[in-house]
Automatic annotation (TrEMBL):
Entry-linked Gene3D superfamilies: Periplasmic binding protein-like II, Winged helix-like DNA-binding domain superfamily/Winged helix DNA-binding domain
InterPro entries, A to Z: LysR_HTH_N, LysR_subst-bd, WH-like_DNA-bd_sf, WH_DNA-bd_sf
Family: Belongs to the LysR transcriptional regulatory family.
Keywords associated with the record: DNA-binding, Transcription, Transcription regulation
Domain of life of the native organism: Bacteria
Entry annotated with the keyword Transcription regulation: yes
PROSITE patterns recorded: HTH_LYSR
Domain HTH lysR-type: 1-58
Record protein name field: LysR family transcriptional regulator
Amino acid sequence: MELRDIEIFLTLAEELHFGRTAERLHITPSRVSHVIKKQERRIGAPLFERTSRTVRLTGLGEQLRDDLLPAHQGIQQAVDRATAEARTGTGIGTLRAGYTTPWCADLLLRAAEVFRGRHAGWTARIREIQFNDMYGSLLRDELDLQLIEFPVYEPGTVAGPVLFRERRALMVPADHPLARRESVSLEDLAEVPLITVDYEFPKPVADLHFPTRTPMGRLIPRGPSYTFWPEVPALVAAGLGASIVAARAAEYHDRPGIAFIPFRDGPTLDYGVLLHADKRAPLVPAFVGLLHELADANGGG
């Protein structure tokens, strides 16, 4: 079985649709059908069950997919490694990645360890990004990618895949009445000053993290502002306001004087890969794929 035929089979096994498979691989649906029929003749049994409405893998097809997928991924990684070596001349390099939260750092550091094992001669350098310069390092070509909160509306950048989604929580002073509740709603934001930042975000981002009104139109009072996020727990513990955070922040930032109360409504906080729109370092696709692999294996982060 030729490598291209394996790629067609594995793509159809993922998409379960001849048209989408053809579009993704830039070939015709008839080419997809011809290759699958040739594979089935060679093996001697159907790999897919086809009707006018659905395409499903047979038991044999599932077995073949599971057997072929690791080998195909290994071939892709070998090609990525050879491509990187051809571009760099030495096959040695450093991939640079940034993060804004400790749970993003955890994922990046796990990926860096696996990355070094898979790509001989390469390392991954991980560094923290400050909120007052969220995108500068990437745009100045000091980073190859960032793992960051979405959405992002920054010229010169392009969003990659979302890796995980986090429930939101409200970080409040421990003696505030909201701290005694099992959950809060977006309407409860009218009951406590909201700590903000001292620089501007695009409106969709500001509305997500620092809304000015509740869904019913009630004014949300403003608390003090901050430059660096580590200031926020101290401001909350001092009773000066509350902050919308990922629920997971309770695992990393808990301290005396604050409480984390989950929201029962509203959107999630989504974390994904941010890339430079025009520059793409060798092995970035391989590293992004590795992040996806590890995030999926850990249930989304």
